[in-house]
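Translate sequence into C-alpha cells.
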Amino acid sequence: MTDADITLRRAVPGDTESCYQLFMESVVDLTARQGNPWDPDIPDVWSRMEPIYSMLAEHAAEWWVAEDGASGELVGYARSVERGGLFELSEFFVRPTRQSAGVGRRLLEAAFPLGRGDVRAIIATTDVRALARYYRTGTVARFPILALERPMDVGDAAEQAAESSLAPVRASTADLPAIAEIERAVLEFDRGPEETAWLLAQREGYLYLRDGRPVAFGFVGKMGSGPVAALDPDDQPAILTHLEGRARALGRERLAFEVPSINEVAMRHLLDRGYRIDTFLTLLLTSRPFGQFDRFIGFAPPFVL
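Result follows.
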C-alpha cells in the first residue's frame, strides 16, 4: 500500500463505531509492544464508551478518516476539539498493519492544522513514533499524566470529608457559569456550556463551596471520573475523598483519576489512600505553558483535558 492508495474524507456520525474499533486495535497493539498486554472485552468497553465517542463526534472541530481506496477499509482517523483558544487533538490512530505509508502525516495535517489555536494540546501515549510526529505539530512534552487507581473497598471517606470546611453541592445546569469561571481560573479556558451540560448528564457533578462561594468542582460517574479543578490546591484531598465516597455509593468497584504528575497534593493524597500508579501513562504536550495543573485533574478516560 502506498500513500496514493489512501483517501481522506471528513468523518460522519456513522463512522463512530468503526473509529472505536480501530482505536481499540491500536491500543491493544501498543500495550503488547510495550510489554504490558491488555485483553479487553471490546463489546463491553464499547457499551460504556459509546457516550464519550458520541460526544466527541458531536463536538469535534475536525474529524477525518483515512480509507483504503480499493477495499474501503478504515485505515486511520484523527479528531480534534476546540474550546475557545484551546485546540486539542483528542485522537490519532492508524491501523497497526497499515502504518508507514504517510497516512499519519496527512491525518494530522487535516485534523490538527498548524497555526490553529492560541494553545495547542495533545494528551499522548508514549508511542515514540506518534511522539515524533507531535513535535512537528508545534507541541512540546510538558509532564506525564498518571492514572492512579484503587478498588473501592470500605474506607473512611465520610469521616475525612466531614473534616473539611468545603460544602459539596450537587451541580445542575444553573451552575454552568460558576463551573466555567473556576475552570478558566485554573486552565485559562473552559470547555463550554454544551460539553459541561453533557458532563452533568453523564456524571454526578459537584460544586464545592466555602462560606457560600464556589471554589472548586468535581465530577464522578459509574464510568469515568473528572475533571476536577480547585482554586486552592490544598482543597483537593477533601474533594477527592468526597468523590471517592460518591463512586462507592454509585457501585463502582474501582476508581481511577488522571492526575498531572506536577499535582503533588493530589498525588500524595491518593498514594496515601492506597491508589497505585498504572503502568500505562500519558504525556501532556502543548504549544506553550498554560494553566495551573497543580490544582487540576483531567477527564478520565484521557481523551481530552
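Note: The mean pLDDT is 92.
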